[in-house]
């Protein structure tokens, strides 16, 4: 079993290939468009604001950003764009290298979260007010208190076991608090860059060309 998902394939384009970068994104792919050697733009289909699982939106979050611009002119008219932080340029190159084996702008995958659970390991889940309220409504206020949750740098986060696993991850990879799990968990989309990263880091599964491969 598993869920069928369609994920964007990442391609890198030099500045003179803006039309190709736009065409790739119009077909559902994610383009890394190098305006110069030091300035890279992510070009992607505009996210659906009503879909918390939209992979384009999550690609922005994965750059530690929230904002993107839907262009109203130029070669990327109608497409969403956001600048890669300089600190993420190597990540952008690595994604394009990983996806170089996939021929089209999108790729179908089957992902079984119960076989995986990679994102429930070494992942500090931040709790928001809505999560704390949900815990209280479920009669589980302790979920937002030590030792199950702690404040760090002003953020309330779920604590991890010494082995890096979430304390609520059961042996069968099910979530012990599934019905009231945090939004950060329920909205985390399979097939996103965050998901692919977790699978690579935790399970050594690279959806494409492995590093140095
Ligand atoms: S890393 Fe991806 S496939 Fe694995 S459990 Fe999380 S969402 Fe599912
Ligand atoms: S709360 Fe549940 S879904 Fe969220 S990280 Fe922990 S085990 Fe995974």
In short:
The chain is α+β, with helices and mostly antiparallel strands and 213 residues long.
How is this structure best described in words?
The chain is α+β, with helices and mostly antiparallel strands and about 210 residues long. It is about 25% helix and about 20% strand. It is built from seven helices and ten strands. It has helices at about 20-25, 55-60, 90-100, 115, 130-135, 185, 195-205, and strands at about 5-10, 10-15, 30-35, 40-45, 70, 80-85, 105-110, 125, 150, 155-160. It has a five-stranded mixed β-sheet, sandwiched between helices. The mean pLDDT is about 95. Bound molecules: iron/sulfur cluster (SF4) (2 copies). One iron/sulfur cluster (SF4) binds near residues 120, 123, 175, 177 and 185.
Work out the number of β strands.
Answer: 10
- What is the N-to-C order of secondary-structure elements (H for helix, E for strand)? EEHEEHEEHEHEHEEHH
Please work out how many helical segments DSSP would assign: 7
Q: Any idea what the radius of gyration is?
A: 19 Å
**Small molecules in complex:** iron/sulfur cluster
> Low-confidence segments, ≥5 residues, pLDDT <50?
none
Helix amount, in percent? 25-40%
Question: Outline, from the CA principal axes?
Answer: globular
| Biggest pleated sheet | 5 strands, mixed
Structural class: alpha+beta
Placed side by side, the strands forming the largest sheet appear as 2-3-4-6-5
Strand content: 15-25%
Overall pLDDT metric = 96
| C-alpha termini separation | 29 Å
């Amino acid at each position: 079993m598993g869920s069928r998902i369609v994920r964007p394939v990442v391609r890198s384009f030099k500045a003179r290939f803006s039309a190709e970068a736009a065409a790739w994104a119009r077909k559902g792919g994610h383009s890394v468009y190098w305006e110069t050697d030091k300035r890279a733009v992510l070009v992607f289909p505009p996210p659906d604001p009503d879909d918390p699982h939209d992979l384009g939106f999550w690609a922005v979050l994965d750059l530690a950003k929230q904002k993107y611009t839907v262009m109203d002119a130029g070669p990327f008219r109608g497409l969403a764009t956001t600048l890669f932080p300089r600190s993420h340029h190597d990540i952008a190159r690595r994604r394009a290298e990983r996806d170089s084996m996939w021929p089209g702008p999108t790729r179908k995958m089957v992902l079984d979260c119960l076989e995986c659970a990679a994102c429930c390991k070494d992942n500090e889940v931040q709790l928001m007010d809505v999560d704390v309220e949900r815990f209280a409504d479920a009669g589980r206020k302790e979920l937002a208190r030590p030792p199950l949750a702690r404040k760090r740098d002003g953020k309330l986060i779920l604590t991890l076991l010494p082995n890096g696993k979430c304390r609520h991850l059961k042996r069968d990879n099910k979530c012990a608090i599934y019905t009231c799990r945090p939004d950060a968990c329920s909205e985390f989309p399979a097939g996103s860059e965050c998901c692919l990263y977790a699978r690579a880091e935790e399970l050594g599964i690279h959806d494409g060309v492995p590093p140095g491969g």
